Amino acid sequence: MISGPIPLFPEQASSISPEVDHLLYYLLAVTIFFTVLIFGAIFYFAVRYRRRSETGIPAPVHGSMALELTWTVIPAALTMVMFVWGASLYMKMQLPPEDALQVYVVGKQWMWKVQHMEGQREINELHIPVGRAVKLIMTSEDVIHSFYVPAFRTKQDVLPGRYTTEWFRPTKAGRYHLFCAEYCGTKHSGMVGWIEVMEPADYQAWLSGGRAMGSMAERGEKLFRDLACINCHHLADQGRCPNLVGIFGQNVQLSTGQAVKANEAYIRESILNPNAKVVAGFQPIMPTFQGLVTEEGVLQLVEYIKSLGQRPGGPPEGAAPRIPFSTSKPSTR
Ligand code: CUA
After folding, report:
1. What is the 3-state secondary structure (H, E, C) of 112-131?
2. How far is residue 27 from each of residues 34, 95, 302, measured CA to CA in Å?
3. E strands present in the chain
4. What are the tens digits of pLDDT across the range 223-271?
């Protein structure tokens, strides 16, 4: 790629990077071509049709259908190419593959906190294996941040109170910049870090370093006990609270008569704002856990509830929703 002493573009380090660059080259080529054409025409006409005498009267101009059609149809075709190309690339970047490795990210003034399902946790670093699709499930503890990895050509806002996702497939082992790309306060410019793309064997070795601290689901289970959720949500039988076994990914019938899919966003809301959606047949007796559990803790609880297995007839275990979680509209950025 174009690099060297003055790198014009960051390294291409994900499967999507070359595709994003090709679209950018097209946009640049179209833009440069028309900039030159229009400014060239302005100067040419300014000279060619300059006022030559005090009394000279220019010949009247008549319209030309052929000319009108030409400069309507050609730009329309060029912009349609931009639209179709851009939209299909956008969709590709929005929909993570089913087999993507899931990693949880919490943005916080002014750091990135990362949790791996196997138990590793890190701050301002993200270790991932080369060649494997990685899906980030992200939220913020405070204000809006944005997870931006130029070498992967990917950027996604990280919002408080919502989960957004971002995925990429690194193609080259190495160390790449991570930036926060949304102004988030005094030390926004310091909210940076590194993506470490490792060979799969090295990654496995690195990952096993976190096992001793317990997986996310195990931490979630501990929280589930520490916060006394278990006292009401018995997992063996139906208590005064819904049994959570196998609930993840299922449709839940609410007291309002509506149904909602038990995804990450629903579980998060049920922990922090329990009365927003009360399950049919239950009383709104659950207290809020707002302020008692961090966003990272909520994610551990989500992982724990996911790990509680599936009821017969449900989707396969661990199946992730294809569309970024449904309470959040797909971001338009
Ligand atoms: Cu976080 Cu800017």
Report:
1. EEEEECCCCEEECEEEEECC
2. 11, 24, 42
3. 101-108, 111-116, 121-123, 125-129, 134-140, 145-149, 154-158, 164-168, 174-180, 193-198, 251-253, 259-261
4. 888 888 887 787 776 677 888 888 888 888 888 888 888 888 888 888 8
Burial of 237 (0-12, 13-18, 19+ CB in 10 A): exposed
Query: Which of 156, 116, 100, 166 lies closest to 303, judged by CA?
Result: 116
Dist. CA 333–CA 320, nearest whole Å:
23
Residue type, 33: F
d(CA 245, ligand 1 centre) in Å? 37
- Cα 61 to chain centroid distance, Å, stands at 54
Interatomic CA distance for residues 34 and 60, integer angstroms? 27
Give the mean model confidence (pLDDT) for residues 181-189.
94
Contacts of 283 (CB under 8 A, 6+ apart): 240
Is there an atom of ligand 1 within 6 Å of 182 CB?
yes
Find out whether 311 and 246 touch, Cβ atoms under 8 Å: yes
Q: Which two tokens stand for residue 333?
A: 């950025």
Q: Is 190 in the pocket of ligand 1 (CB under 6 A)?
A: no
191 lines ligand 1 (CB under 6 A): yes
d(CA 151, CA 170): 9
